[in-house]
Inverse folding.
């Protein structure tokens, strides 16, 4: 099952290595990982999309992450109301004749063309991963020359629905 | 004026290495295990200038230093401190760091590093020790600014010794240790992401207490968490209050008196019949500070299949990792036991269970066939136990001799048993004994080692020679890598591939070349004549004790089998 896990980390040297090394050592599959600074200086946020077998594996993952000295907080936010986005850049082969056709395809996705050359256009799309997937699939027949995705980044919405938060791990309650 | 100038001069000549030495003194460190080299020259200079502050133990190989520090840490119950140089010095420490990580031994390891400006250029004696040790340390640091050094040392000791103990590496570039420094340094500690849970949740303690009241077949599994927490007294009270049989893990030996009537001995692959059957049949399993290692559990499908499992561990990640726990208790073992002991004591309805456990202990004890001419290794350990009245500090390598020592040396006190459990490191026992002896100069310290393992780190005999440390090395010499040989006999149709090593040095002459008394014993008669004095005198000794090669460790749970499928139980 796919889960979105975020880790707030102390931005010290080696922390990324420690976290990814730990996931590799314990044989967790990372589908994507994105890292960046947060509103607090010296604190970064990592967002992982992981594919785990079951809840026990997931519990291990969050516990092992939590154990790291430089990891301040780990949350599995999959079951929360979240905003999740990733950005993709897609360079598509296109001559001037089909450029407008591509424009028509990407428009419903609110994607934009950010670079044009004689043989190609570069499309920028942001959104949830499945939306990005869908657009890439539509562009594929034209010939994708280059593709880069940032991986998902996410956090919880300001307002959470009323029902009790689903906690996937907890030893203290 | 003059005085002020001299003060300035003094502070002006303080280097990063001096800051390190000051920080170590502040931590109360009195023993260092280390080996000098290019990148730690400034540090060694500062140690030289701080003469009298530390006992610096110089091994003959960095691996010897770190295993000695582990032995020291295990017996002294405080952090072992190691210094190694960059590159090969640091990589030679890797096995010991991994060993300490597996067995939760508190170590603070300082490694030299090439100067900051050349890191990443494949400089002479450069190795990426941060990258190498990341997966095998509780935490590691590379000092980037001299101001941080005192803070990092403080944090390193704190992390190594609190919560679940473990090794911390501090990598110090040479330009930082040689940098002259006068400004104020940062001492305060900043570890917002590290707050181990030490006190148990009262609700969970009540749950365990309730479960206990209903249990008909309770059993306690003691792990090394009890020893780390110094909770042996609390454990004894708890066991006495409820009369619950106790099974120990390999590393938990000594947390509860091994010779007590409620002790069923060690569980697991080479555990006793009574211990393993108790784990198999119990209806309440109270695990205190053990991590359900595969050598203990055997096939997880058959591990405590009918039991409610209560698991006390300071490391939340251990709970539910291998065996699901219905009563998880994240806590220091001492705090958890204290909370349990504060509950009202009720007598349990488990007489039948106790009688059954005792009957198994009496009917199916550990066993071997005594021989007139040959020394049976189990008997050898038994004799060591008798001659030292069970009071020695015992260290071992890994393998057959380790299992026999665990089976036949009944530890009644904690911090007396020093062995490489999780990593299973050959060559661990002898250097660990040096550290153990330094931590406890009063006790007899016996390194029970295999002939294979001893040959991996025997260069440390120099340390015994140098210091006259009375470590007794008993080589359980079967001229084979016994456990490998045993598995080849059992599971590979007796194809003894590279496991019989009959070319050996003359261990007596070897010892003598280090001016250490060496003894050759190959019959029970000689053993009874000479061993008592060897173990009682105040000199070091190397005892080449020839034992039966064909002897195997029993009972045994074959790989993939369950606790109830033991072979080699006394007929």
């Amino acid at each position: 099952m796919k889960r979105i896990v975020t880790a707030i980390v102390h931005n010290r040297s080696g922390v990324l290595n420690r976290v990814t090394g730990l996931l590799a050592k314990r044989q967790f599959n990372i589908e994507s990982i994105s890292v960046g600074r947060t509103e607090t200086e010296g604190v970064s946020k990592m967002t992982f999309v992981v594919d785990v077998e079951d809840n026990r594996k997931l519990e291990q993952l969050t516990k092992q992450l939590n154990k790291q000295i430089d990891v301040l907080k780990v949350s599995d936010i999959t079951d929360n109301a979240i905003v999740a986005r990733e950005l993709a850049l897609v360079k598509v082969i296109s001559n001037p004749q089909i450029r407008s056709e591509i424009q028509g395809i990407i428009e419903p996705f609110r994607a934009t063309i950010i670079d044009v050359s004689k043989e190609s256009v570069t499309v920028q799309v942001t959104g949830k991963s499945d939306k990005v997937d869908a657009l890439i699939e539509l562009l594929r027949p034209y010939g994708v020359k280059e593709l880069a995705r940032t991986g998902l980044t996410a956090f919880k919405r300001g307002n959470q629905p009323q029902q009790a938060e689903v906690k996937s791990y907890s030893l203290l309650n | 004026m003059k005085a002020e100038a001299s003060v300035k001069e003094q502070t002006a000549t303080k280097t990063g290495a001096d800051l390190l030495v000051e920080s170590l003194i502040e931590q109360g460190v009195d023993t260092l295990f280390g080996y000098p080299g290019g990148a730690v020259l400034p540090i060694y200079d500062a140690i030289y200038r701080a003469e009298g502050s530390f006992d610096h133990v110089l091994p003959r190989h960095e691996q010897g230093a770190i295993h000695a520090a582990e032995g020291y840490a295990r017996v002294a119950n405080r952090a072992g401190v190691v210094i190694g140089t960059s590159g090969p010095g640091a990589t030679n420490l890797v096995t010991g760091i991994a060993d300490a990580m597996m067995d939760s031994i508190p170590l603070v390891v300082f490694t030299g590093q090439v100067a900051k400006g050349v890191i990443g250029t494949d400089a002479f004696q450069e190795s990426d020790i941060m990258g190498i040790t990341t997966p095998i340390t509780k935490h590691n640091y590379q000092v980037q600014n001299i101001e941080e050094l005192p803070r990092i040392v403080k944090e390193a000791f704190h992390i190594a010794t609190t919560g679940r103990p473990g090794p911390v590496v501090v990598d110090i570039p040479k330009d930082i240790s040689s940098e002259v420094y006068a400004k104020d340094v940062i001492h305060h500690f900043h570890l917002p992401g590290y707050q181990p849970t030490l006190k148990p949740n009262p609700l969970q303690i009540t749950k365990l207490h309730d479960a206990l009241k209903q249990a008909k077949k309770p059993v306690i599994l003691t792990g090394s968490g009890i020893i780390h927490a110094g909770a042996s007294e609390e454990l004894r009270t708890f066991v006495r209050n409820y009369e619950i049989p106790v099974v120990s893990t390999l590393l938990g030996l000594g947390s509860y008196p091994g010779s007590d009537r409620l002790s069923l001995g060690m569980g697991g692959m080479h555990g006793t019949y009574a211990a393993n059957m108790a784990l198999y049949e119990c209806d309440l399993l109270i695990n205190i500070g053990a991590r359900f290692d595969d050598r203990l559990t055997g096939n997880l499908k058959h591990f405590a299949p009918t039991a409610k499992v209560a698991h006390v561990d300071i490391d939340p990640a251990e709970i539910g990792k291998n065996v699901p726990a219905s009563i998880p208790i994240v806590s220091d073992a001492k705090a958890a036991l204290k909370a349990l002991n504060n509950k009202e004591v009720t007598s349990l309805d488990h007489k039948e269970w106790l009688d059954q456990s005792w009957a198994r202990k009496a009917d199916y004890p550990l066993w071997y066939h005594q021989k007139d001419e040959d020394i049976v290794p189990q008997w050898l350990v038994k004799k060591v136990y008798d001659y030292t009245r069970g009071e020695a500090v015992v260290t071992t390598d890994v393998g057959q001799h380790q299992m026999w020592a665990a089976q036949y040396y009944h530890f009644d006190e904690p911090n007396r048993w020093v062995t490489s459990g999780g990593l299973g490191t050959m060559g661990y026992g002898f250097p660990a004994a040096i550290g153990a002896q330094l931590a406890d100069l009063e006790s007899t310290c016996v390194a029970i080692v295999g002939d294979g393992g001893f040959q991996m780190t025997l260069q440390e005999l120099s340390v015994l020679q140098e210091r006259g440390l009375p470590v007794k090395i008993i080589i359980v010499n079967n001229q084979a890598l016994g456990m490998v040989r045993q598995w080849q006999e059992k599971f590979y149709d007796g194809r003894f591939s590279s496991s019989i090593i009959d070319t050996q040095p003359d261990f007596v002459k070897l010892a003598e070349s280090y001016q250490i008394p060496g003894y050759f014993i190959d019959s029970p008669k000689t053993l009874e004549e000479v061993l008592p004095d060897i173990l009682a005198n105040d000199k070091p000794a190397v005892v080449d004790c020839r034992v039966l090669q064909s002897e195997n460790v029993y009972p045994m749970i074959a790989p993939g089998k369950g606790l109830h499928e033991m072979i080699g139980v006394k007929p």
